[in-house]
Design a protein that fits this description.
The chain contains 30 helices and eight strands. The chain is α/β, with parallel strands linked by helices. It is elongated and about 105 Å long. Bound molecules: guanosine-5'-triphosphate and magnesium ion.
């Protein structure tokens, strides 16, 4: 590093009219350098003074740079920031300014700007103006050579000198941009829209304006070009319908702070300019400064993970209700006045539903054979039923004969206790007379109740209160688990879906393994996985409706001898919940759900959105626009009836 600074290097590149304000009180080198900075400000800096300035800068970098520890003493902090700002002024050499500017921009990017803000407010307004203008140039998407060229002096410099100056300025701006970017609390990726890049800066401006609360400071923010800067990143902010979107929040917060601080008597023009950009309904429940502080503090929460990766992963064992949940959410985004499934889609479900039932009937036949009792009549009914289910069109006669003996259906129902899958046992068996009718077309509920085993990974983009979030559905069978890991790094939030009613069932792939034991073990593994540090994991104990039936029919204490809650259904639910929670952090959120109940599942999802997603929504990409000629606000990337799915042939 050069220890001397040439006259040409130390000349101002940007015009500056300010006076010097640094007043370091730090004894020793800091003190000396503070004085030097103060004394030499715009003068040509040479020799020992240049060395002292550089040493002071190194000290500032050590204390305030990204790797520094916090400095407790407020007087020291004040003097450090004061000198830092001083050294960013255009009167110093570009190499000094670049280093100082880098520290400033890293503080802004990392939302660690309370002290910097204070120092800037205490600075002369003309200096703050220069700095803010430089920051906006540095963050502007086109902050490249065109800018620096416009900023270079229009003296009679030779072209070569001009282009050298321009190149050095580009390096200066790029260094600030990089420092800012490197400290952002969220990662920039393709899924994060460009406006997210300036969230930290806008909060810095909002905070400075609110902290200063002086109209004069707000005025220089306006004059430095903030409105056009905002419009660059939020191009439609003046459009009434768009500015109400929640993702305008950081820009709206900044505009709101400015409007609060400008003087209505003298700043009429500026105020009316800002009014066109502010949503009329914009409202803060606390004062401006508190609201900004709250927004800044969110950077520490796991929700920032969601901001980086707006993916909600639905994990859990097979047949617990993951896909049903997706179906309900996707359907809910559709305007209720219209039909969600077309007749064609409904027709595609017929074969899946028939297969669901016939798989269970086959299972029932196996069970009966194993009972060793003479149940010939019943077996014949089931065989007839299987035939019919195999091809409805060919067996019209048989269907009518089945109808003639409606008690036969009751006979089937009488064997419910024989461990059939819940959706057949509690739903499709009752619906058989309707299903076997000519021209049967599945209802919405039939589609929700139909099980199609998921294979592979299926992300679906959903409209979450105006923002786009990806809901990722995975196959839950053992053989599918190895595919999950590809998505672990992309997890923003995890919803582990377990079935509360499977306590007396065995795994489809391993009849020796109890389903609930297997689910708890899987949950335990995921909760403690290194992939999910800082990611919230929500537990959904699903199939409460099935549990309610089962709890009446199957002795709970037989399975759990240490359960002491007797016939109290709620006590049994808490008992199972605690079994899961014994493996998880104490603050794990648990929801009891029935995914086949649309209203209930949407209420639960709303609670999850409020609790885990609301603060992130303003920063996410907008939801995909509705398809032409439809009010569908959801972009479903997979077809629920596609050939990606295989039929479940076994359930218990
Ligand atoms: N009664 C009832 N049935 C449910 C509930 N949740 C899911 N089901 C049914 O259970 C079956 C399995 O549900 P899916 O959503 O396909 O399960 P999954 O977790 O996606 O299963 P895999 O894709 O195999 O991992 C379907 O027939 C659903 O209708 C519930 O809360 N109550
Ligand atoms: Mg599924």
């Amino acid at each position: 590093m050069s220890t001397s600074t040439s006259a040409s290097e130390s000349n101002s590149i940007f015009t500056s009219t300010g006076t010097f304000t640094s007043s370091s009180t730090v004894p020793g080198l800091g003190y000396l350098s503070g004085k030097v900075i103060k004394r030499f400000g715009s003068a040509v800096v040479n020799g020992v003074d240049a060395i002292l300035i550089r040493r002071r800068l190194a000290q500032i970098e050590d204390s305030l740079g990204p790797t520094s520890d916090n400095i407790a003493h407020t007087t020291i902090v004040k003097s450090l920031y004061s000198d830092l700002l001083e050294l960013s002024r255009p009167v110093y050499s570009l190499s000094i300014r670049t280093r100082a500017f880098r520290v400033i921009m890293s503080k802004v990017g990392g939302m660690d700007f309370e002290d910097l803000t204070q120092a800037m407010i205490d600075w002369p307004l003309s200096e703050s103006y220069n700095l803010l203008k430089t920051m906006m140039t540095c963050l502007h998407p086109l902050a490249e050579s065109s800018h620096s060229q416009a900023w270079t002096r229009t003296t009679n410099e030779s072209d070569a000198l001009k282009s050298e100056r321009s190149a050095r300025l580009d390096t200066f701006l790029a260094a600030g941009n990089d420092a800012y970017k490197s400290q952002l609390p969220y990662m920039l990726s393709e899924t994060v829209p460009p406006r997210s890049f300036v969230i930290s800066f806008l909060l810095f401006i909002a905070f400075s304006v609110a902290q200063s609360s002086k109209p004069s400071f707000s005025r220089i923010v306006m004059e430095a070009g903030l409105p056009s800067f905002i419009v660059n990143f939020y191009p439609s902010i003046s459009i009434a319908t768009l500015k109400q979107q929640r993702y305008w929040f950081p820009a709206q917060l900044t505009i709101h702070a400015l409007l609060k601080c400008l003087d209505p008597n003298t700043d009429f023009f500026l105020i009316s300019q800002l009014r066109t950009m502010l949503d009329d309904t914009f409202h803060l429940s606390s004062d401006t400064l508190t609201a900004i502080r709250l927004t800044i503090s969110q950077k520490d929460l796991p929700i920032m993970k969601l901001l980086e990766k707006p993916n909600i992963l639905l994990l859990g064992p097979g047949e617990t209700g993951k896909t049903t949940l997706v179906k309900q959410i996707v359907k809910s985004c559709f305007k209720s006045s219209q039909q969600f499934y077309s007749d064609c889609e409904r027709a595609e479900y017929i074969s899946h539903i028939l297969c669901n039932v016939s798989a269970s009937v086959e299972q029932l036949l196996d069970i009966i054979a194993g009972l060793g009792q003479n149940l010939k009549t019943f077996e014949n009914v089931l065989i007839d039923l299987l035939d019919v289910l195999d091809d409805l069109d060919l067996h019209a006669e048989k269907i009518s004969s089945l109808y003639q003996y409606e008690e036969k259906f009751h006979l089937v129902s009488a064997y419910r206790h024989l461990d059939l899958p819940a959706h057949v046992n509690y739903y499709f068996l009752d619906a058989l007379p309707r299903i076997l009718k000519k021209h049967y077309l599945p209802s919405d509920q039939d589609i929700i109740q139909c099980h199609i085993m998921t294979t592979g990974i299926h992300p679906t983009l959903i409209d979450l209160r105006g923002s786009a979030v990806s809901l990722v559905d995975f196959g839950g069978q053992f053989s599918e688990h190895k595919k999950w890991i590809n998505w672990f790094q992309k997890a923003g939030l995890i919803i582990f879906v377990a079935s509360i009613s499977d306590y007396n069932e065995v795994c489809a792939e391993n009849p020796l393994m109890n389903r609930m034991d297997d689910a708890i073990e899987l949950f335990d593994n995921l909760v403690h996985s290194k992939w999910f540090v800082g990611v919230s994991i929500i537990l959904l104990l699903n199939k409460t409706d099935v549990f309610a039936h089962k709890f009446q029919e199957v002795d709970f204490t037989e399975r759990f001898p240490d359960y002491t809650g007797g016939a109290n259904h709620d006590a049994a639910c808490v008992y199972i919940k605690n079994k899961y929670l014994s493996k998880a952090p104490a603050d794990t959120q648990v929801y009891f759900t029935s995914a086949v109940d649309e209203k209930q599942i949407l209420e639960t999802m709303n609670d999850i959105y409020d609790e885990f997603l609301e603060p992130v929504i303003p920063y996410l990409a907008p939801a995909p626009s509705p398809e032409p000629n439809t009010s569908l606000q959801v972009h479903v990337q997979i077809s629920t009836t596609s050939s990606h799915h295989e039929l479940s042939s076994t359930s218990q």
